[in-house]
């Protein structure tokens, strides 16, 4: 059973999400929060698999709430919900540790698939789209000079794992990595898993951000 906490200051969206999720086999809503402070507290108390997090809420917004939930170190993952696909707050949410984001007008099937993907440790945003988003808003993610330092997390990587991380940061899918590095896709999946474990990435999105931070890839013009 995948457990979900809904955080949104608007009652109608919360009601709609609850009806959809509670009516889906294998999913259940364990709580509703109408502000960020409440979302952080309920996430700690209820330990849901996924928090559906609205960005704009009074007081503590969804970005800060995401940051606090992730910083707590629990297994709970955050899926940002936003109104606009180029909303800068959504990018800030990913930087804060969210495992992806979806538009609020997403189709029911896509929302359910996204929740399940996040719950199992995957990223909702596709690798290629993640790269495009980071390229467009790199200034939100990277502090000045951030790409000039050597990231200690990379020292544990083998030469092949380093190549795989660069490929992840470049936006290649597992199939593309397999083709270009002349590996089987199953071998690539194992490499990706080991890379994310060694660098402490919660999901593929965070791995891309780490690759940016370490200077392995740079924003394209």
Written overview of the protein:
This is Response regulator. It comes from Streptomyces vulcanius. This protein is α/β, with parallel strands linked by helices and about 220 residues long. It is about 50% helix and about 10% strand. The chain is built from eleven helices and five strands; from the N terminus they run E-H-E-H-E-H-E-H-E-H-H-H-H-H-H-H. Strands 2-1-3-4-5 form a five-stranded parallel beta sheet, sandwiched between helices. Strand 1 (about 1-5), helix 1 and strand 2 form a beta-alpha-beta unit. Helix 8 crosses helix 10 (about 185-200) and helix 8 crosses helix 11 (about 205-215). Residues about 145-150 have low confidence and may be disordered.
Short overview:
51% of the residues lie in helices and 12% in strands. The chain has 221 residues and is of the alpha/beta class. InterPro entries: CheY-like_superfamily, NreC/VraR/RcsB-like_REC, Sig_transdc_resp-reg_C-effctor, Sig_transdc_resp-reg_receiver, Tscrpt_reg_LuxR_C, WalR-like.
Annotation keywords:
alpha/beta, five-stranded parallel β-sheet
The fraction of residues in strands falls at 5-15%
Total helices: the number is 11
Q: Termini, distance in Å?
A: 44 Å
Which runs of at least 5 residues are low in confidence (pLDDT < 50)?
A: 144-148
Radius of gyration from the alpha-carbon trace, in angstroms: 17 Å
Strand order of the largest sheet: 2-1-3-4-5
Largest sheet: 5 strands, parallel
User: Strand-and-helix sequence, N→C?
Assistant: EHEHEHEHEHHHHHHH
User: What structural class results from the helix and strand content?
Assistant: alpha/beta
Mean pLDDT: 84
- E-strand count: 5
Shape: globular
Question: Helix share of residues?
Answer: 40-55%
Domain HTH luxR-type: 150-215
Domain Response regulatory: 3-119
Protein name: Response regulator
Pfam families: GerE, Response_reg
